[in-house]
């Protein structure tokens, strides 16, 4: 199944379009008004999810309805403790984190106050929180923040960060969310930490009292490369004579980026003999948050060969089915996408069939339209095809890699000459292809997945561990290139 072009929402959630139900945001003034708005939004998030989420009828996930009720209960409990715009943001965030799924939940679009910091910024790398940038002379880049206020940073991450952000069971989410532990974003349910202990590379320890202040705007330029390193444009380049570098920072592309990918396809064809003789080909997924799986599939086909990739893919997806939740709003949404993809014949054909099938299921009262029945399985040829592309392939994996970015790893790891370098990837549930629906206040959105995979080879919550972990704080191109050059 080719995924549809999507827009980015966050490090772990992809959106195929906006579908609104409210025209404008309300403007609460008093604490009581804020509490009412927050509770109404939480209940609406629950109701919209219950009416449209595939999990409500998923026989392979019978606990989902109870989990959704728990999400509502925990979010409402927070809304009763404190009110105001930032309490709205935190309570809505809690609704999502209980679900533990980047393709479901809700988020608040409330403006956040200026970020406050203690004079330094830190990131999670491997199994530790490490300083990335500091304006305090005694705190150096690379120092480990081992504990704060008498608790380990691991324990604090679980209690403070993952209560409102990310998925605690995903190693990649620790990488994504680590910066939050020592950043004050105005969450009224969290009291800023007071003192931390640090460990230097030589093992010596020291303590620092935390003095919180608004982070100066000048700091931003020092943090540009903190998350994924520098972002390269979509292209095939040769940073070394014998090392090719294919940058794929997004699969959610605009017209220019789509044209750039087509140029990359042409370059691979034109430079194929050089690629076959190269020391290494680097597939750079830094900054990628998913989108359409078409682009990575085409890259794989250009490198390893169309028929080889199709045969290997068929071997992993022969039992897979796609079930679309045929609610009225989901069906209307898919119908609306036909206009969006009218210039993409392959996707238009698929979507047209899905829209028609969902409409029939909706009319008959069936909760799902099953896109792919087991009786339509491909018959695999007896002899496996072999690719002539044997060059070492290093895939740089960022921690937020999910959805179509994970699909790319599925494809690339079909081949023995592929090595994953970097961080643990993120993970997907079985619920995909999401849309956004407005909260009644207009102050946020509900994230609604439209379909569920059945018998997918990669299970819910499965992620890729790097074959070669890189836990350094610097993820810039030059640093990573030097790491790759040192690999035998």
Keywords:
7-stranded mixed β-sheet; alpha+beta; 6-stranded antiparallel β-sheet; single chain; 488 residues; disordered N terminus
Descriptive overview:
The chain is an alpha+beta fold and 488 residues long. Helix content is 34%, strand content 22%. The protein has helices at 31-52, 64-81, 85-99, 153-161, 171-177, 255-270, 272-277, 294-304, 306-317, 328-340, 345-364, 404-412, 477-485, and strands spanning 7-10, 13-19, 105-108, 116-117, 120-125, 128-134, 144-148, 151-152, 195-199, 205-209, 213-214, 235-240, 243-247, 280-284, 321-325, 368-370, 392-397, 418-422, 431-438, 444-454, 468-469. The strands form 4 sheets. Strands 1, 2, 3, 15, 16, 19 and 20 form a 7-stranded mixed beta sheet that branches. Strands 5, 6, 7, 8, 9 and 10 form a 6-stranded antiparallel beta sheet that branches. Strand 7 and strand 8 form a beta hairpin.
């Amino acid at each position: 199944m080719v995924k549809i072009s999507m827009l980015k929402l966050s490090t772990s959630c992809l959106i195929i379009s906006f579908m609104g139900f409210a025209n404008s945001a309300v403007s609460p003034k008093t604490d009581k008004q804020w509490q009412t708005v927050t509770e109404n939004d939480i209940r609406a998030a629950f109701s919209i999810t219950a009416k449209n989420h595939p999990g409500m009828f998923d026989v392979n996930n019978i606990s989902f309805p109870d989990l959704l009720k728990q999400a509502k209960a925990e979010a409402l409990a927070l809304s009763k403790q404190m009110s105001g715009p930032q309490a709205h943001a935190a309570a809505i965030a809690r609704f999502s984190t209980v679900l533990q799924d980047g393709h479901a939940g809700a988020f608040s679009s409330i403006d956040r106050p200026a970020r406050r910091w203690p004079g330094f910024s830190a990131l999670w790398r491997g199994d530790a929180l490490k300083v990335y940038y500091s304006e305090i002379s005694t705190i150096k880049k690379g120092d480990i923040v081992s504990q704060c206020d008498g608790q380990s940073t691991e324990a604090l991450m679980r209690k403070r960060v993952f209560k409102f952000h990310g998925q605690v069971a995903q190693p990649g989410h620790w990488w994504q969310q680590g910066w939050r532990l020592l950043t004050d974003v105005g969450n009224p349910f969290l009291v800023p930490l007071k003192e931390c202990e640090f460990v230097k590379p030589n093992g010596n320890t020291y303590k620092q009292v935390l003095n919180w202040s608004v982070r100066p705007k000048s700091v931003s330029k020092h943090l540009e490369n903190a998350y994924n390193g520098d972002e390269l444009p979509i292209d095939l380049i040769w940073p070394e004579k014998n090392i090719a570098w294919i940058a794929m920072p997004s699969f959610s592309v605009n017209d220019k980026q789509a044209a750039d990918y087509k140029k990359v396809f042409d370059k691979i064809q034109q430079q194929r003999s050089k690629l076959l003789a190269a020391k290494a080909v680097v597939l750079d997924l830094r900054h990628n948050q998913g989108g359409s799986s078409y682009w990575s599939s085409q890259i794989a086909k250009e490198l390893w060969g169309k028929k080889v990739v199709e045969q290997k893919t068929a071997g992993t997806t022969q039992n897979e089915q796609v079930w679309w939740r045929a609610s009225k709003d989901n069906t209307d949404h898919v119908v609306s996408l036909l206009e969006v993809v009218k210039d993409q014949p392959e996707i238009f054909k698929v979507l047209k069939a899905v829209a028609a099938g969902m409409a029939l299921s909706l009319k008959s009262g069936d909760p799902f339209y099953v896109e792919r029945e087991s009786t339509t399985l491909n018959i695999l040829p007896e002899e496996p095809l072999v690719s002539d592309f044997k060059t070492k392939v290093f895939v740089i994996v960022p921690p937020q890699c999910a959805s179509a970015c994970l699909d790319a790893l599925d494809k690339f790891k079909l081949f023995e000459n592929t090595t994953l370098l970097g961080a643990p990837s993120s993970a997907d549930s079985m619920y995909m292809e999401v849309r956004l629906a407005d909260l009644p206040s207009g102050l946020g959105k509900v994230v609604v997945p439209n379909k569920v995979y059945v018998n997918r080879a990669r299970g819910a919550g499965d992620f890729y561990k790097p074959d070669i972990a890189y836990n350094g704080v610097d993820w810039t191109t030059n640093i990573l290139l030097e790491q790759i050059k040192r690999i035998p």
